[in-house]
Amino acid sequence: MANQKGGTAKSTTACNLSTTLASAGHRVLCADLYPQANLSMSFGIERPEELAFSMHDILTFMIEKGDGSPLPDKIEYIVSGDKLDIIPCNINLAVTEINLRNELGGERVLSELLEPLCADYEYIVLDTSPSIGMLTINALAACDSVIIPVSPQLWSATGLTDLVQTIFKVKRKINPRIEIEGILMTMCDERTRLFRDTKALLDEFCRDRIRIFDARIPSTVRVGEANYSSASIIDFDAKSKAATAYIEFAKEVTGHADSDKTTATA
Ligand SMILES: Nc1ncnc2c1ncn2[C@@H]1O[C@H](COP(=O)(O)OP(=O)(O)O)[C@@H](O)[C@H]1O
Ligand SMILES: [Mg+2]
Fold first, then answer.
1. Which of 3, 8, 97, 202 has its CA 20 to 30 A from that of 181?
2. For ion ligand 2, residues whose CB falls within 5 Å
3. Separation of 245 CA from ligand 1 center, angstroms?
4. Which residue, among 149, 141, 112, has the nearest Cα to 253 in the 3D structure?
5. Best substitution site from 223, 234, 236, 247 to test ligand 1's pocket, by max atoms within 8 Å of Cβ?
């Protein structure tokens, strides 16, 4: 999930996509790369500052020990939940951000951590900060594809242009695999003019270059209530419109959207 604007539902989407994928039987790992630890908290880690070992510690270990030393046991830095696993973080990760800047090859440290874990998981979902700093660059360097949550209230063509340019720069210089998976419209109130105007601008911006997911996440207080209860909307209120929308979105991500229709048509 990437968008350098805050409040576009990156963390909410990371939580709900991961939970939906895990509920569908996929092996999922989440990695929290935002020092404020919203994603960690949404998985029930109430006091991230008390974590004995976190994303900060494992990345610091990798920076300090270099390539040679074996990593600590996975059990040290991966928290296994009921449905999925997470590498949580806390505010210490802000220090890692600075240390990564001074490290030769600092944009690839996360890739080195995640590469061996790819064999254990079908999906690794990364939540990023509302900035394009070294932690976000590490996420872009490590990922296969980027989902960009966009909220009509916070629409900014300039912001999106900057992000897309950064992604293409990362593709040229660090990670040739990276693709833009698509733009997810979040916090939508489809009756409003704001929504229609933003949708038109977004269509114009994306044209045939960038996919906009058919699923749109409605704006609803239930999402805030779910976040407040440290739960995904899927677990909090499976019948809510937002939960249904996130399930449809997850199907698009896995390529199974409308698979019934496809079969029927075939
Ligand atoms: N579909 C939605 N409807 C209403 N509120 C939402 C929705 N999605 C997210 N929010 C709220 O918007 C705020 C920002 O969401 P968050 O996922 O933290 O954004 P980001 O990670 O991009 O900063 C949170 O308070 C969250 O509860
Ligand atoms: Mg966030």
1. 97
2. 10-11, 38
3. 15
4. 149
5. 223
Residue 249 has pLDDT above 50, yes or no: yes
Centre of ligand 1 to C-alpha 172, Å, is 32
Ligand 1 atom nearest to 6, measured from its CA = 23
